[in-house]
Every structure is written in structure tokens, then in C-alpha cells.
Specification:
The protein is of the alpha+beta class and about 120 residues long. Helices cover about 25% and strands about 25% of the residues. The chain is built from 3 helices and 5 strands. Strands 4-3-2-1-5 form a 5-stranded antiparallel sheet. It is globular and about 45 Å long.
Length: about 120
């Protein structure tokens, strides 16, 4: 099984109460910021998406995106709600100019971050 979940797998995982993530990378004008989405099923059966923006404080030896400083210091994160997975995909693709949404299980965005650093030609510290 690959790293990414297709639309049906993502829907099934959410229905089972699992948390999914989507690594957005550098979607801000300030390229020192990295972003990702956390996706959960809300109690009212809607899909809830929280958008996280962190300062890029990592390197190939320190990939713990979750521990990086938040851009919004008061932790007032933007939360979106969707009725279904198709609506979520369409809105996120349009908002962040993505050709596809790469759903991953919680915790895998650190691998996505590492891939970004390697793609950018970063080496160790």
C-alpha cells in the first residue's frame, strides 16, 4: 500500500474516526511558512478541516512539523466544515491551487516535509 489514500479510502478512514492530513507545503507568499490540513469527522457527521501554518524551523535531522512555532501565536486556527469528501476536495483544490489532494494518515506529513526539503535541494544542517 502506498503513502497516499484515494478518495474512497479517505472517506472510509474518516467514517472510522481516523484523523487524516494533507501536507500543503509552501502555499503562502512567505516561503518560510509551511502549511498542512488536519481532517476529522465532526460529531454532526460533517467533515472538519483545520488549517495549520507553522514557521519552517526544521531540517533533514529535525522533521517534527508539529513542534514548529505556529504563525498565529494565539492558536486561533481556521476551521472549515464540509458535507462530504467531494466538496472538501473541490474547495481545497481551488483555494490552494492544487491539482490533486494527497491524503495521508496522521503523522505522515513529516515524511512529506522531508520530501519537500529534499526536492528543494536541502541537505543536513
Amino acid at each position: 500500500m502506498g503513502r497516499y489514500l484515494n478518495k474512497q479510502q479517505a472517506k472510509s478512514y474518516l467514517d472510522l474516526g481516523k484523523t487524516l492530513e494533507v501536507f500543503l507545503g509552501r502555499v503562502h507568499i512567505d516561503k518560510g511558512i509551511i502549511s498542512y490540513l488536519e481532517i476529522n469527522k465532526a460529531l454532526d457527521d460533517k467533515i472538519e478541516v483545520t488549517i495549520y501554518d507553522h514557521y519552517d524551523e526544521g531540517n533533514l535531522e529535525w522533521l517534527d512539523v508539529y513542534s514548529f512555532s505556529y504563525v498565529d501565536s494565539d492558536e486561533d486556527f481556521e476551521i472549515l466544515q464540509f458535507d462530504n469528501i467531494a466538496e472538501l476536495i473541490e474547495t481545497i483544490q481551488l483555494r490552494f491551487h492544487l491539482s490533486e489532494i494527497k491524503f495521508v494518515n496522521q503523522g505522515i506529513i513529516q515524511d512529506e516535509y522531508k520530501d519537500l526539503l529534499e526536492l528543494e535541494g536541502k541537505t543536513s544542517i
